[in-house]
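Email to the structure team, subject: 5-methylthioadenosine/S-adenosylhomocysteine deaminase model.

Hi all, the expression group asked for a predicted structure before they design truncation constructs. Nothing fancy, just the tokens so they can compare against earlier work. One-line instruction: predict 5-methylthioadenosine/S-adenosylhomocysteine deaminase, return tokens.
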Amino acid sequence: MSIVIRGATVLAMGGPNGSTPFLGDVHVEGDRIKAIGADLPLPEGATVIDGSGKLVMPGLINAHLHSGEALFKSRYDNLPLELWMLYAYPILGAKALSERMIYLRSMVVAIESLKTGVTCLTDDIFEAPRQSLAQLGAAVSAYDDAGIRATVSGHVMDRDFLDSIPFSREHVSAELQAEVAKLTPPTTEEYLAFAKEAYAQFHGRSGRIRFMLAPSAPQRCTPELMQAVNALALEWQVPFHTHIVETKVQGVTGPAMYGKSLMRYMADLGLMHPGTTIAHSIWVSPDDIALMGEAGVSVVHNTISNQKLGAGVAPVRQLLSAGVNVALGSDGISTNDTPRMFDVMHACGLIHKVTTPDYSQWLSSAEVLHACTLAGARSALIGHETGSLEAGKKADLLVINLDTVCFTPRHDILNHLVYSENGSSIEKVMVNGEIVVDNGRLTKIDEKALLAELRSLMPAFNDYHSGVEAANRAFAPAFDAIHRRCNQVDLGIHRLVGTSDMWPA
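Reply from the structure team: attached below.
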């Protein structure tokens, strides 16, 4: 099937034009872009889309999210990460969700993502108490049915959770420690078996679904697990996706537990390389940044989530200058409350203007858009397939109406995209050469029926989860004390989250 978008403003974000818009045509053949240029020949039988007054650009890429939090959208506020996790990622009392609930939960993410221009996402999926293949399959089926491109994982931890939090043995009661000790995390062998079966079942489905390896964080996983899954990631050429130094507590964790930063710890284990994608990277030192640049890692900057949790602001300019590939992510649908990447771009464009008075170091709209397109694709190791509009790449693109209020009066289109647009000007979303959103309507699923079904199930879920929250509230005083204690430690790193004298000793 041929589709030709004729006479549009094209923002390729790659190729000879880069981030400079130009007038031209885009020819899609099957699932790929066949040609881009002015006055392209029209193949016989091709569907023609009038591009006058339209912008054609790559679909946005959400390089880090947790769909499991979609059931907690707008449930929590004013909690730092370590206390918020008690309720969104409970230590005690959680039971396995049904496959149907996971399917509907994933659909909430897919629907909002596609309607607001996200054509590709990386979903680090955690299931309590541990993930089954059937549960992962439910999420994959939702993404497959909706038509989005997705890289999915089985998020894994294999250490006692309390051993991943500094000073927890001093602050958590012996009774609660004993309850946590009863939990049995998966062994390295169990997770490897799971990952191999998941890769065999899901990787490559529909040409849009990929599987990745996702050890939660270096302090939450044993070296044996991380090194074993890293070997698989390198063999399969999929991301080794993890979280490092999101909060001040985690900044303290490396020195407290290993006598070195968590970045240095990862490097010493041989886990820093171009296939490594690190979510957050806030509490990093200049030495850490140099290590990351030398290794060629990717970092996913989760601007809004980090602000909502009071975690700090990642040093994006320094990371870019060191040669780190910086992508953008929404992070979880509870610490951001939406997977909308236009919102993330807007926040990213703004927040770094207050990190230094040297305005020559502020991020440009072109850099923000690059982070949300081609850099995001590179973080998922699919930059050769998507993230920019170039002949031979997958046809993942947006058709945006330039005659809306968001682009009126029209000045710099890149600035409009970062600071004025919110997704409401999108007319068509194409993934893998297929139009999956047309004038606000998803073409492959019944959005209204799916959302109604999930709403009907939420009262029972909320009753259950309220009990889980009550059980885990017993940890709150100890975690509050740990949060306060760690935030008094001077790491010599300032990340716009207050000062070491925030609380009295």
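The chain has a mean pLDDT of 96. The two ends are 68 Å apart (CA to CA). Ping us if the truncation boundaries need rechecking.
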